[in-house]
Hints:
Elements lengths: L17 E2 L6 E5 L5 E7 L5 E6 L2 E6 L1 E3 H7 L11 H12 L7 E3 L8 E2 L4 E2 L3 E2 L4 E6 L5 E4 L3 H4 L8 H4 L28 E9 L2 E8 L5 E7 L8 E8 L8 H6 L10 E9 L4 E8 L4 E8 L2
Parallel strand pairs: 1-10
Antiparallel strand pairs: 2-3, 3-11, 4-5, 6-7, 8-9, 11-12, 13-14, 14-15, 15-16, 17-18, 18-19
Helix pairs in contact: 1-2
Amino acid sequence: MDTDFDGNIGLNDMYAVQSLYQPLGITTFTHLDNAEYIVTTNPGEITQISAAIGGDICAFDDSKTGSFWFSSESFNIAANDRDEVQQVALRLGLEGGSLANWRVSRMHRESDSYDLGTGFFQEVTGFGGRSVSVIRWDDWTRVYDSGSEMEAAFLDAGATEDERSIFNADFDDSTSTPTSRRDALSLSTGPTPTAIEAGEIGERLIVIAANGPVGGVYGWEVERASAAADPNPVFEGYTRRGMSGLSWDALYDNDNDDVGEPETTDIQWISSVSDTQGYFAVMSDLAGAVSFYRVTLT
Length: 298
């Protein structure tokens, strides 16, 4: 994943770190043997509160930047069999590398890898899984997680420059452009997937998830080879309606769909119209817009 706000798409796997799943969107689908599976988006959210009370400012943040966390918290860097190479990489990354500004949980809880007995963190834990997960209903086993696929899609040869220009971007304010906030969410929750939906086209199963902040959708086709095996989602890619070079105000004022679906809140499967085509709708709360997409399978 990309953990640095430098304006670039810089995925790396050199650091032994983890993130909380923190699911938000949820849907279900049925496997060949009528077994039910849950599908979730894992966007993540950092609790940050600032309020004025009687002239005083009360502030709470359950995260710290990686560098401040490393200097102020007790961290067992050798825990969980991390070898010397992993320890050196972590230290350098947190002290001044691409983990230095990444938001890390400071909460002293077991779920955040804090050992109550020793008083040390055992892992570096960020926010947001930046992924989609499939969970078996009957025993709550996670049988699939998309990992870095959502971010890696922007490095794919088929990704357009317009799509790359809004990589891990957020919505700042209506006068900003989507491209001006490129890479801003790499410090926290990355692509921040929100809404999710599943639908069938003929005998084939499709899963669609939304990029929450700037819109656009990610798609998977779920392989269902046999009732004895768990379903296997295969990532198909990312696409986005709308432009990126103008301000959000200007995009909204245009008499077309240039604004796209910023702050996507819902996806609804409409129907399949043949064995190879189906339709779904995407709702943007911020733009007050509904977009319709057609899926064509080959």
